[in-house]
SARP family transcriptional regulator
Amino acid sequence: MGENGSPARFQLLGPVRLLDGGRPVPVGGPGVRGLLALLALKVNKVVALDEIIDALWGHDPPATARTIVHGNVSHLRRVLRDIQGDHPRGARILTAPPGYQLTVEPGRIDVHRARSLLDRASTEDPEKASELLAEALALWQGPALAGVPGSVRAPELEDLRLAVHGARVDADLELGRHAELIVELSPLVRAAPLAERTAGQLMRALYHAGRRGDALELYRTVSRATLRTLGVEPGADLRWLHERVLNDDLPVKVVEEAKADTTPVQQLPPAVPSLAGREADLAWLDELAERAEAGETAVGVVTGTAGIGKSSLVVWWAHRAARRFPDGILFASLRGFDPHHPPLEPADLLTQFLLGLGVPAEGVPEQVHERVALYRSMIAGRRMLVILDNARSAEQVRPLLPPGSRSMTLVTSRSRLDGLAVSNAAKLRVLGTLAPGDAVRLIEELAGPAGFDLNHALARLCGYLPLALRIAGARLAASAQWSAQDLVDELGNERTRLAALDVEGPDDGVRAAFDVSFRGLPSEVANTFLRLGVVPVVSAGSHLTAAVAGITVAEARRHLRVLTAHNLLSETGRDSFVPHDLVRLFLRELAENELDENDRQDVLTLSVRYYQAVADRARRKMLRIVDPLDFTGVLTDAQTPPLSSFTEAQDWFTAEWENLVEVLEAAGAGGRHDDVWRLARVAHTYRAVYPLLDEWTRLVEIGLEAAERAGDVLGRCWMLISRCAIALTFELPQGCLADAELALELASAIGDNRLVVSANIHLGSALTLLGRHDDAIRTLRQAVEETDRTGDLELRGQALNNCAEAEKRAGRFIEAIGHQVASLEIDRTLGDDSYVVVSLNNLAELSMRIGELAAAEHYVWEAVDLTISRRFVLQEGVLRLTLGRILRAGSDVDGAREQFAIALKILADANPKLAALVRAELTDLGEGP
């Protein structure tokens, strides 16, 4: 039995021990001490057996864990009986399903005694409070819970120690013990500069000890550490203290001063230390404030996608503009998109504001309408700013809008809240991403410079989204071993980019921010959004969306606008909806996780068929069709965009080209090779009219590979013809003849006479390119004769044109003119403007060769007018070259120089080979390149 049979005491603030008086009693190893600590921390409460097992062994307990706990409980009971006997106030361990309960007076456990001393000190004068708190601090005999398994954690014990220490220092400050406190607190602040309460106490001690300069230097040190580590300025209390020290106006008894303070309500949370960019948005907020000062209604809604920086912008501006609102600032987070809590009800928000305005709790009305009336009466006529952060809906906001015209309200939301514009004349501001330079500056504020190229690459990979930029900057600042190049490499992989922008908290990363927005969508809109995630397009319109979601175009348009209202898409043009780069990656991940393989394949099939059908319709408005592919009956008129003219077809291809190629590549990766080559061949028509070497080559190579993988002879033949067309357009002889010969061999094997003729036309043109003019003319004249026999106007016009080109290069100008005039006649009959331009250019060159300069100039100007109206950029460059040569031949040197300069400007990027010819022409005229 212990001293006089006294009850045991428990020590947790240091090595975990059971004490008999002042004598430690052996209880066993770490597992037993851990069990004792768990029971003592929750004294007089039941601790479940499963909770004990989890705390002692984590997620990998032994099979005998329950038996071990039962045995250790029995052992502790015997030890307690040995030192306490049957003392009426002795500690007992009771079996209390679903676990065990330690029953003892809380004061016999040092943790609970420390809490009791802290509570008592709060009601005592400074002298007595200091004594009580010093007694509480003396209970710590080392790191809390020493000697127990590492899985047993109680972080609240460190919080308790800090609270006790902070309260004791506050008491000593009021007692004027400044010199002693400087000695005590200085090493603590050096070791933990982010502990703002301790730093503030040291600032007070320094100031009141006559060391005002040291107090200011301490603030600068803490501020730098906070900015470097957290990316924010110190909290409001420390900033307030800094301002008082700067103004040499810091009273000793701060608590008494605060009680007497009658300053207006100021509920603003801390602001970010600086705001990168946003000058136009800040100016918009300033203008809104000026409206309020002028007595006009001033309600602003700041909206944008998750992570765009809505709250940061508004809070930062509010701190800067606080002087405009002398009657105070009210702030509330409405939790509109909180994944763990429902949005706050207007009734609760009204209560929060009324209490902030000084209404006592008992004075808050029970009825919501009465709260609204009281709130409005209290702020009527005042010049106040009300900030409603993270709103879900207009209905959540309306009761909180001030009635007067002198106040200003700012609402932030991921939704546009268009209803507020209708009912309350709210002004809408949609935030975009940061400018590249501002994005780099934000990263550098957090992590320091890492080289121009690296930081710009980081900013670009973060999509210039402030949340992503802050996470990237914080990751770099957190570890000296983590370089900007490492992070660029990780973000550079689209499959790992979102994971790289996650943070430790489950709801703070980029992916989590987007997920909250997605989960708030109506189910039918969410399904449409998911299906768009399968289609690897840069932008989506209502017709494509309708095709892949299986809905009408009108429904698709409505769904896209809902997604835009939730800031998951941006409408960048008429019927063109684009996700942010990171939203696109999130959406792709989401589709892969939430749609099964069959659904994804179905969506991809629908997207390929859509582009085949619409591209086929578009190409038939632009150029003669010589291949047999026909998708015009796949979609109805209502399911396709309006393509009633050449210009509309051209605009559709221009807008959809990148999407079309992305779908091609995705379909190829999914093994849909037959669909791929057909779509590539259909889209080839657009590039034949608007040739860009890299884009055209990429398209044709995708199509040819798909045809080869599918083992489709017809597909291989047409794609070889397409590749040969590229070589002819850009005069690239490498491989052109081989492609034409193989295409002819395949066409002959198929037995398709029309395909044979088309292959022969390309073979003849390839021979022309190689300078084998006689062979070329013979081959092409055979093609002309065959088309004359079959009456095939499309192929006949093409054969005549190519034959004329071969004859021109062979110097047979009269024969060439005859064939070219016949070709032009067919081109005009078929309404084929692209071929008309080619024929007119050839006739201009031929006329110049035979000295008919007036006719030559007439032909070329007609063609130039047509290229300008049809936006045939490359063709215009070729014509300007021809026109310059005609003018030079007519001794109009200035006119020739002007046309060559225009041609060079057009061709410099579009066709470097022709651009070199133009430079040579300018050199001949005495002009530099």
Q: What stands out?
A: Residues 251 and 258 are 10 Å apart (CA to CA). The longest strand covers residues 408-413.
